[in-house]
Every structure is written in C-alpha cells, then in structure tokens.
Amino acid sequence: MGTSMIIGDGILTPAISVMSAVSGLQGELEGFGTNAVVVVSIIILLALFSIQQFGTGKVGFLFAPILALWFFCLGSIGLYNLLEYDITVLRAVNPAYIYFFFKKNSGAAWSALGGCVLCITGAEAMFADLGHFSVRSIQIAFTFVVFPCLLLAYLGQAAYLMKNPNSAERIFYDSVPGSLFWPVFVIATVAAMIASQAMISATFSCVKQSMALGCFPRLKIVHTSKRRMGQIYIPVINWFLMIMCIVVVSIFQSTTDIANAYGIAEVGVMIVSTALVTLVMLLIWQTNLFLALCFPLIFGSVEFIYLCAILSKFGQGGWLPLVFASCFLCVMYIWNYGSVLKYRSEVREKISMEFMLELGSSLGTLRVPGIGLLYNELVQGIPSIFGQFLLTLPAIHSTIVFVCIKYVPVPVVPQEERFLFRRVCPKDYHMFRCVARYGYKDVRKEDHHAFEQLLAESLEKFLRREAEDLALESTLQEIESDNMSAWSRGSRTQGGDGLEELQVPLMQMQRLEEVGTSTSEDAVSVLPSSVMALDEDPSLEYDLSALREAMDSGFTYMLAHGDVRARKESWFLKKLVINYFYAFLRRNCRAGAANMSVPHMNIIQVRMTYMV
C-alpha cells in the first residue's frame, strides 16, 4: 500500500510543483490565464520526463548549486519580510497558539490543518535519497539548511500577510520584492523540476525493490551510474508517470484540488512507514516493548490527526491518490499472488532424485553429443519442465546444464565469478546446476558465443576443482587410516605409546593441512603423488573429453513457455485473477530468461501448463 501511494506521489508531485511555480506568471503577465498555465506546465513536464533517460548523474551536478540558491532565496526573503513588515510573528513558535487558533475557529481550523500538511510534503520520500546520499548528509542538510530556511520563509509570509491580508491566494510571489520576481521565478521553476526529479527517482526505487521481492511485474531497468546503485531509470514507469501527470494537470487545471489529493497521499505514506518501522523495531532491532510502542503513539497520533483533517477534502480531489493506490495495489497483489502459486507448483512438481536414478544415465532416451542449457528459476532440484523435454524429444543432449539467473547488488560481477556450478545426479549422468550471477550494471544482451565459451571454461574449471577435492579427500582418508593402524601397532609395543610409529603419518597430516591454507607454489610440492597427478586421473579425463565432445557439437537453449491456470475446482474469483489478470501481466512483462542473439535453430521451446 505504501509503495502504491509512493507511485501516486510520483504522479502528483511533478504536477503540483510545476503548476505552483508557473502560476506565478498569472499576476505578473497580462492575459496569462489558467489555460496558459496548463500549457506551459505540460511543456515543462514533457521536458522533465524526457531527460530522465540520461540519469540524475548526468544533470545532478546542477542540483546542489540550484537548491542551495533556492534555499538561500527562501531564507533571505523570509528574513527580509520579517524585518520589513512585522517581526512580532515570531511569537507563533509558541505552541499555545495552536489551542487559541482551534478555540476561535473550530471547524475552519480543522480544515486549515489539512492544508498545513503541504508544509511537510516531501519528507516521506527522503528514503529515496539514500540511493544518492549518505544518511549523515541527509540529516545535516535537513536540520541545518532545509528546516531553518522553510521556517524563515513561512514566518516571512505571515509577516507580509499581517500588512497585506488580501494576498493570501498568491502569497509566495507577492511577498517577493518586485525587483527579484523574475530571478526567483526562474529559480523556483528549476527547483520544482528538481523536487519532481527526486519523487520520480523515489518511484523508480520503489518499483525496482518491489520487482526484486517478486511484488511487481518485471520491467526493463536501466542503471545510469556505475558508482550509485540507486540511480536507475525505468522507461515504462517514466512514460506512464508523464502521461498521468499531463492528464491530472489538464483535468484539474488548479493547484487547489491537486493539493488536496497530494496531502492524502503524503500522510498515507507516512502512516504506513510508521507502522512498518514499528514492526522493524519489534522484530529486527528487538527494541524494548515500551519504547517501541511509544514511537507509533507519538508519531502515529500526529499523522492520524493530519489524515482525519485532510480526509475532509476527499470530495475535492482527495479521491485521486486512493484510486491510483488501489490500481497499483491490485497489480502488485495479483502479480505476487500468481508468482507465489507458480513457484509453489514448480517446487511441488519437481522431479525426484529416485525417479532420475530409475531412468539411469541414459535418462530413458538417446543421449546425443551436445550441451543443452535449460533455463529455470529453481536453485535446487530438477525442474518439472525437464520431464516435458524427456517426454517430447526423441533424444537428449549428452551434457545438460540447468541455468538459473540471479542478480546481485554489485555493479559488475567479474567474468571468473560469473558462474557457480554443482553436479546433479551421479557422474555418468553429466548433468549440472549453474547459477549465473549478474551485477546491476552488467549487460544481459551479450553475444551468445561469448556466453557459451565462458560457461564451458567455467564448467571445465569446476570439473578440475571437483577432482582435486576428491583426491584431497581420498588422501586425508588414507592418512587417517594409516594413523589408526600405526596407533594400533604402537599400543601393542612393549611399554610404548606408539609415538615413534605415528611420527611420519602425523607430519604428513600437518603438511597437508598447511597446503590447504597456503597458496604458495612451494607448498604444492608437499602434496602426495595421488593429489598431484590429476592429469592422469581417468575419471577427470573422461569428464573433460565428454565435455569437449559436447562443445564441438554445439549448444542448444531449452526454454519453457509456462502457462499458469487455476484448477477447475477453484473459486470463480481465483479463476478470474489467475486465468485473466495474472495471465495478462505475464504476457506483457519482461521475459525472465536471457535475451541473447541466439539463432532460432539453436532454441527448443516447450509449452507447459502449471495448475495452481
């Protein structure tokens, strides 16, 4: 729900920020009406979303000086108005005036409280900045720059209203000295674009993390920075936000109704965040129960009061973020629900090892030279789709590799660390599990020849390491057996403890342990001959020759096209969700398997239906 509201924020923030900045021209240029504000706002929004593909790193060097200048303008203009009009408004920092205000205005004060939410908007999106800045820098910036400047700005506007009460509708630009209007207008417009940029980045971050948790359909993600993992660009989300922003601006044509919608989305996100932080305090940080409950009581009560106040604007635009949140919540829930059922079906229907052993090394069919790469999502076990290939094909490849692609939170995975291998079934089956790891900056659309060569080289290294481990284990068992024999002989010697008999085997054991922790070439010389003569190992030679023969015959990519269908006895609602909504999302989301330039003759695809 919180993520859905953040996406709604990504629509409303650019709309209200840009319109608020552009609306300053209405009182400055003659004939510049509402339609002109809408047109100019749409043009700026088009420019804003068009530059997202270049990444914040490309234009981010401008953010700091512009925002510094913007906050300097806010603070200095507010201080000027305080000194020029009425410095006594500083008494407003006294909390007692809250009581006096509500006592005097009652219902109108409650409505005004809903408008005060706009003073703290943006605070709920600070987490998104963690993709770009450290926690300490955010704390310092908000404590010593943002808060003091905003406080001076609002106090200065209050001082101006004391002398000019009719300027409430256009208070920001009216309180700016006349000679500074155009510089402040330009800075305000650019600052509005930067604020919108931050919210758009927050939307990208939330969608990406939801995809990683399996709660959002797979979309194309472009990482725009090698140094900052959080700097990403999602084309589909970007263009969707742009279209919805233009629709909102075109329909509402006023910042008042958009502000009502904005406030509900902001406070909704804050309440969800407070609830989740409370769970983190209890379950992860294991904070004292009393202290953990004080957090939601203090912050949650304030947020709840604001939410009740802003809900009074529900009919005046406040319904919009709830509609956005409901739509995205349905999409996320349906995708997660269907994906979980599909994965459970794969785990439940995976082929048992007993069945594979009954088939024998021939797998119940003809083994022909070649390497078959079967893509699947399971990191252990034999996927049920492999059974479909065995039933469908008259022959199967001599070497089978189950490839599972995983993404890790590092920019680039070195080539030598790309693949992790594990043997499946006995040696004569020639079946392996391969986990292909990619960093967030790695290019997935790689040439299939390079991919195949790297995979074959990594598999050969795995076979050699496996032979080394087996030889080392065998040697350790022999030494242990020799020690036990020597101990038995020594214990039977007259009055002896067997130390002389044990001396040589124990030294071999010590030297062998040193080899396991040493990487120097000199240490290799202490290995027994059984460990050294790997090239003469007939088992290794057989595996390597079989692998080379399979490589010479080529690679075949075995892909599964799985349909997910609800069982016949399922409820009508489940059938509707799985057979139509989830199926629609699967057809239109990004493919999970690798997209490489593989010739069609090298691809075998089998359709399979998962009944959930």
In short:
The chain is an alpha/beta fold and 612 residues long. The protein is built from 21 helices and eight strands.
Low-confidence segments:
494-533
Strands ordered across the widest β-sheet: 5-6-4-3-7-8
Structural class: alpha/beta
Distance between the termini: 26 Å
Reading the helices and strands in chain order gives HHHHHHHHHEEHHHHHEHEEEHHHHHEHE
Fourth CATH level, the homologous superfamily of the domain at 2-317:
Amino acid/polyamine transporter I
Which CATH architecture of the domain at 2-317 would you pick?
Up-down Bundle
The main sheet comes to: 6 strands, mixed
CATH class of the domain at 2-317: Mainly Alpha
Shape: elongated
> Which fold does the CATH topology of the domain at 2-317 refer to?
Amino acid/polyamine transporter I
Can you count the beta strands? Answer: 8
Q: What is the residue-averaged pLDDT?
A: 81
CA gyration radius, whole angstroms: 33 Å
Helix content range: 55-70%
Strand content: 5-15%
Model description:
This protein is of the alpha/beta class. Among the domains are: 2-317, Amino acid/polyamine transporter I (Up-down Bundle), CATH 1.20.1740; 447-537, no CATH class. Helices cover 60% and strands 10% of the residues. It has 21 helices and eight strands. The protein has helices spanning 2-22, 34-50, 56-59, 63-84, 96-105, 107-116, 135-163, 171-174, 181-212, 235-252, 255-283, 289-310, 319-349, 353-359, 384-392, 448-492, 499-517, 521-524, 529-532, 538-553, 572-588; strands at 222-223, 232-233, 366-375, 395-408, 419-424, 431-439, 555-565, 603-611. The strands form two sheets. The chain has a six-stranded mixed beta sheet, with helices on both faces. Strands 1-2 form a two-stranded antiparallel ribbon. Helix 4 packs parallel to helix 7 (135-163) and helix 11 (255-283) packs across helix 13. The longest helix is centred in the last third of the chain and has 45 residues, at 448-492. Residues 494-533 have low confidence and may be disordered.
